[in-house]
Amino acid sequence: MHSSTLRTAPIHLTRTLQHPSFTTARSLRPCIVAKWLQSRRLTTASPRTQEVIPLRKHLKDEAKRKKAEVKRDGNVLSTKQTSDSRLDKWELTVGIEIHAELNTACKLFSSAPAEVSVGDDGGSANSRVAAFDAALPGTQPQFQIATLLPALRAAIALECEVQRKSGWDRKHYFHWDQPNGYQITQYYRPFAKDGSLTLGAFDGVPAEDLNGAESITIGIKQIQMEQDTAKTMNVGSSTYHVDLNRAGMPLIEVITLPHIHSPQTAAAVVRKIQAVLKGVDACVTGMELGGLRADVNVSVRQRGTSGTGSSYSGVSGLGQRTEIKNLSSFKAVEDAIVAERDRQISVLEAGGVIEGETRGWTLGATETTRLRGKEGEVDYRYMPDADLPPLVIGSDLVKHLKTTMPMLPDAVEQDLEEWHGLSRKDAKTLNEQDNGDRVEFFERTASFLLAEVGTFKSEVSTGKERRKTGKLVGNWVLHELGGLLATHQRSWDDVRVTADELKDILVCLHKNQITARAAKQILAELVQRQPAPKGPYWPSMDTRPSVEQLIDAGNLRLRPLSEHEYEKLAKQIMDASPEMVKAVREKGQKGKVMWFVGQMVRQGEEGTVEPEKAKVVIERLMDG
Fold this sequence. Notes:
By secondary structure, this protein is of the alpha+beta class. Helices cover 39% and strands 16% of the residues. It is built from 21 helices and 20 strands. The strands form six sheets. It has a nine-stranded mixed sheet with strand order 4-8-9-12-2-13-16-17-18, covered by helices on one side. It has a three-stranded antiparallel sheet with strand order 7-6-19, with no helix packed on it. A hairpin with a 2-residue loop joins strand 14 and strand 15 (315-318). The protein is globular, with a radius of gyration of 30 Å.
């Protein structure tokens, strides 16, 4: 085979088994390296892959945790106060290394596909491997230029200085997940340096870290491109299966400066970097799907001291750091830092010394575990890669990417807040969901609705109607439609309701043709129906009813009661609930007025009671 063909030709490692020497069945031998490491209680393996947890479950778990903290008894609270008192003496410092998988079609140094394609046998093990990925003799790396574009978008979004000339280094270490015996990275000559990330309270930064300011800035030392490793699966005490599909996948490593001083801020940094990378299409999967992993470097020092005198990239006065590897959720980042901080404080207060080492973390654990001693630059024997020329990036390419960049998350949220009238919380929630698809749906619905009611998005508009419409649409997209999807356990990809259909519902609601209750009923009906068929075989047939058809079929069109009928229904409910009437009139419990409104809507004929008018009638009768 010609050498140029060999470099990129895809292979299946199982071909090796076709050799005559492998035809005789025999049992697997225990791995001698694994036995040697286990005998000394050491390991070079990464912590076991943690269970993939959806974002919604993260949020629910966080809410449960905070609720449980409030209900803790006095003994637990006393323990918490003791822990907090130690923090008055000790200062935490954290730096983060984030590894993000780039959104590309091929690997970093081979043309092997990065994603499962049609007919790829479901993405079976070792099915997307080129000769170089498997380190076959005679193969050489060939940098795939397309992988540079998402990396540059990430660097620009994080305000880094893109280097005109960068290079490749070999990071040597022996492990079965790295067939070459080294990883190609940019440790000494990264393509981007000196970036920054700004965060505020709405990003999750606690007030004590803000110290009265509106925001804080976390420095980014550098961003470098590098290869991912193969995936290792433990199938026994000393047996491992290696899948090279992930070997050579293009990554960027975002390295922050040690400017972080709380676990909450550390989690906020990872969360925001993920949002930025996804917002500019640098990566498409986050922590919840394994596309982003974080390593955290943790150290503590007594306040007012210079720690052990350690320094990192111009930041001095640090304590001895330890590194916690492969954290795969925001909660894991926060909890692992808390556990390691408390462990280091306990060791130092007992007169011990913190050792530089790599540690692991498992969700639900109370303490980090030692994996191995911390390697240094000398241990990795960094050297320039002689098979790869320097990477030269033209200023015209950087300029083009800057002018064509999509809006960053902060800008999108600001637009939702100022132009569309959403609250900061709703704007952030809307922007962080479904890779921007829900924001696009919201904006289409809002523009359709504005056009329908006669107010177009323009500079001459007063903006009052626009913001009112934005709040209405935001509430229905986030809460009503989002709640229905959660109830039916469906993702946004299976939303079924179109922006035009939601607009039709809200137009009818705006014109008082239906009640809010009827509008929710129609939306629920559309969510459960199959979408209208499309394509050449369905030129005129449409099996999906329109909003108007659903209103007429369900007899949902508003037929408002007269003033006399409203009073009659309200008095009937008040006569049947004297205790509730007493609570409102004598005890001043005005909130119970809405209970009466709800009863009027339920007991009135469908499509006849408007909650706003019912509330006015109830309040008048209560005051009379």
